[in-house]
């Protein structure tokens, strides 16, 4: 039997088990940096299956290992995140969240279950590849500073060092049975902007006696919005938006302070640094020219997620071999962010999308209280990742 059919049969064999795992995780979600019970559950499975692992990485993170022939020859890594969101679930299903106000609304339960399924498949196929496969179960993708960053700082990409890393994310905009890929720049950096204009407020009818913090803030907003168009290269998608303004005055009162909050996103790390400097320069100049001062805090979020061209081209090739060419599609870039980007800044990486919708039943968006997946997609997710992994280890 060829490799594709072996993996397909094993995906079928473990499908019900993976559904059981996914439903358990969905029913017992935990927030970022609080995934202790989730980690215990994964550890219990690894112990039961006789899989070597390390736990306690960034508190709740786990790295498990499946070794083929000549395990020292090379290493690749596969990653799944496992935290949930502060969302109250509205689905009427037997595995509905029992933790009030917490839900796997971004599909991390599916990511973890699928990766455990991939592990079970590869555990049975160790004679089919040389090297070691590292399985990273990561906490806290949804909350800064991000579990990926903390796991990397604690050595998850060392001893052994993976040649590259693969991750997948559920995607309700694609039907179950399909995968989506994007070479090169794929997801944006995600920085948060906090600015406060400070001056001498007072009676709005006496502009000569006050510093008009509201007017200054409005000028800063307009100027900031223009920065991406003025200095970002046209080929680099860049967005700067102020989404919150608090000027707590009145019809005839200008406040002493006006605060603003926004987001800045781009697809290039050099551009990111340049625009950070420009934000500070432009805001300072406007405020100071009108007798005010300004406090600026740019909170660095996740970096740019860049899909390595070589590993992504090969992943697409292998995915087409496993699923059929018609079931692997090209995606556009996204201005959303993902902390998988930290891995992509360190080693070659490929992050792709797993279609999870079925007719009109499972098309509710990510982060919504009614998000759910067509569970057949788990079979696709674990089988494809197993096939891609072995092909890399056999052919590189």
Secondary-structure blueprint:
Blueprint (H helix, E strand, L loop, with lengths): L2 H25 L8 H14 L2 E6 L3 E7 L7 E7 L26 H16 L8 E7 L8 H7 L11 E11 L3 E3 L2 E4 L3 E8 L3 E2 L9 H19 L6 E9 L6 E2 L2 E10 L2 H21 L3 E7 L5 E3 L1 H15 L4 E3 L10 H6 L2 E9 L18 H20 L1
Parallel strand pairs: 3-4, 3-5, 5-16, 6-15
Antiparallel strand pairs: 1-2, 2-4, 6-16, 7-14, 8-12, 8-13, 9-11, 10-12
Helix pairs in contact: 1-3, 1-9, 3-9, 5-6, 7-9
Largest sheet: 8 strands, mixed
Number of helices, counting only DSSP H or I runs of 4 residues or more = 9
Shape: elongated
Which CATH class of the largest domain is shown? Alpha Beta
Query: How many domains in all?
Result: 2
Estimate the mean pLDDT confidence. 97
Level-2 CATH architecture of the largest domain: 3-Layer(aba) Sandwich
The SSE order reads HHEEEHEHEEEEEHEEEHEEHEHEH
CA-CA gap between termini: 22 Å
Residues in helix, %: 25-40%
Major sheet: order of its strands?
Answer: 1-2-4-3-5-16-6-15
Broad structural category: alpha/beta
CATH superfamily of the largest domain: Zn peptidases
Low-confidence stretches: none
Question: What share of the residues does DSSP label as strand, in percent?
Answer: 15-25%
Strand tally is 16
CATH topology of the largest domain: Aminopeptidase
Determine the oligomeric state from the structure.
single chain
The Rg value, from CA coordinates, equals 24 Å
């Amino acid at each position: 039997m060829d490799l594709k059919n072996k993996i397909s049969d094993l995906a079928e064999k473990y499908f019900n088990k993976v559904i059981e795992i996914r439903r358990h995780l969905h029913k017992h979600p935990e927030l970022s940096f609080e995934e202790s019970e989730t980690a215990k559950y994964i550890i219990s499975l690894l112990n039961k299956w006789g899989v070597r692992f390390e736990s306690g990485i960034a508190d709740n993170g786990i790295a498990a290992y499946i070794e083929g022939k000549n395990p020292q020859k090379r290493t690749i890594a596969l990653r799944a995140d496992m935290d949930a969101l502060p969302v109250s679930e509205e689905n009427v299903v037997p595995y509905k969240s029992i933790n009030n106000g917490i839900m796997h609304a971004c599909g991390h339960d599916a990511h973890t279950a699928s990766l455990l399924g991939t592990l079970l498949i590869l555990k049975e196929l160790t004679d089919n590849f040389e090297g070691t496969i590292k399985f990273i179960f990561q906490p806290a993708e949804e909350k800064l500073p991000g579990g990926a960053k903390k796991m990397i700082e604690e050595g998850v990409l060392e001893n052994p060092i993976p040649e590259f890393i693969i991750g997948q994310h559920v995607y309700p905009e694609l039907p179950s049975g399909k995968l989506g890929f994007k070479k090169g720049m794929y997801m944006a950096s995600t920085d948060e902007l906090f600015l406060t204009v400070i001056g001498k407020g007072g009676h709005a009818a006496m502009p000569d006696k006050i510093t008009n913090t509201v007017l200054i803030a409005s000028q800063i907003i307009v100027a900031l919005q223009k920065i991406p168009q003025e200095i970002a290269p046209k080929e680099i998608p860049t967005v700067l938006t102020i989404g919150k303004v608090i000027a707590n005055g009145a019809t005839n009162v200008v406040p002493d302070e006006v605060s603003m909050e926004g987001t800045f996103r781009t697809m290039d790390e050099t551009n990111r640094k340049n625009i950070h400097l420009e934000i500070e320069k432009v805001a300072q100049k406007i405020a100071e020219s009108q007798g005010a001062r300004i406090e600026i805090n740019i909170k660095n979020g996740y970096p740019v997620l860049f899909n390595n061209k070589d590993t992504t081209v090969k992943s697409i090739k292998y995915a087409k071999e496993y699923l059929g060419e018609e079931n692997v599609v090209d995606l556009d870039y996204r201005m959303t962010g993902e902390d998988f980007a930290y891995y992509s800044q360190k080693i070659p990486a490929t992050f792709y999308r797993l279609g999870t919708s079925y007719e009109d039943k499972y098309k509710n968006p990510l982060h919504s209280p009614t998000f759910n997946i067509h569970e057949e997609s788990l079979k696709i997710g674990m089988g494809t990742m197993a096939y891609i992994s072995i092909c890399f280890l056999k052919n590189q």
